[in-house]
Design a protein that fits this description.
Elements (H helix, E strand, L loop, with lengths): L2 H6 L7 H14 L1 H8 L9 E5 L5 H9 L4 E6 L2 H10 L1 H5 L3 E5 L12 E7 L8 H11 E11 L6 H9 L8 H11 L3 E6 L6 E6 L4
Parallel strand pairs: 1-2, 1-4, 2-3, 4-5
Antiparallel strand pairs: 5-7, 6-7
Helix pairs in contact: 3-4, 7-9
This protein binds S-adenosylmethionine.
The site of S-adenosylmethionine (SAM) has 23 residues, from loops.
């Protein structure tokens, strides 16, 4: 595998030296996108948050700042990502507000109805079996809970489709494809937004109260 291909493949599961470089870069590189995504979180005051595919942990830190009374669990299946998220959120971990775990979103080690908010920034491209993973997210959310997905690809932009060809197992989804998978997985309401000038999308799904 060439160096470039090896490097961009680190987005899927950062490992080793290149993975560490990638995770360091993602914390800064995804900040604007993630802040735009989080700006869609209106009218909620989550007490328990799960941040899925947390990468370098910058978005976990931003959520903990945004919701100062909340506790957050960040998870990722990459050891490199878990290590970096722990370093990024050292203070919040020592205060008991943040926990970081190495887990796969396909099988979440939590009781049902454990969280008010679940977030996934730039990660669903790599999830194995979208509907199964979304059903897991739905299971661990409380009734009325919110699931935020934020992607820099709307599933049709040329740049991301090029990456899809070189990153193993990557799949860029349209907002419609995500909506349909979320509804099949058990969510009751889905709202989507497209950035006015970039191919960024935000998808907000709600778990029904019944
Ligand atoms: C492109 S990075 C995005 C990281 C971070 N969310 C951000 O916006 O900067 C994707 C992350 O999702 C993680 N990931 C991918 N599939 C996963 C899965 N099935 N379970 C847990 N983590 C996963 C990867 O290890 C990686 O850290």
């Amino acid at each position: 595998m060439g160096l470039f291909k090896n490097y961009v493949n680190q987005t899927r599961k950062p490992e080793g030296f290149l993975g560490k470089m990638m995770v360091d870069g993602m914390n800064g590189g995804h900040a604007k996108l993630a802040d735009w995504g989080m700006s869609h979180l209106e009218g909620i005051a989550p007490a328990a948050i799960v941040e899925l595919g947390c990468g370098g942990g910058r978005n976990a830190a931003a959520l903990l700042e945004r919701y100062s009374k909340a506790k957050l669990t960040a998870l990722d299946y990459s050891e490199t990502s878990v290590k970096k998220t722990k370093a990024t959120n050292k203070k919040e971990i020592s205060e008991g507000r943040c926990t970081v775990q190495r887990e796969n979103v396909a099988s979440l080690p939590f009781d049902g109805a454990a969280f008010d908010l679940a977030t996934a920034f730039e990660t669903v491209y790599f999830w194995p079996g979208l509907e199964t993973c979304f059903a897991e997210v739905c299971r661990v959310l409380k009734p009325g809970g919110t699931f935020l997905i934020c992607n820099e690809s709307d599933g049709t932009d040329e740049t991301s489709l090029k990456f899809e060809k070189i990153i193993d197992g990557m799949k860029c989804y349209t907002a419609e494809q995500l909506t349909s998978a979320l509804m099949v997985a058990g969510f009751s309401e889905v709202k989507t937004d497209h950035h006015p000038s970039k191919p960024w999308i935000t998808v907000l799904a709600t778990k029904g109260k019944i």
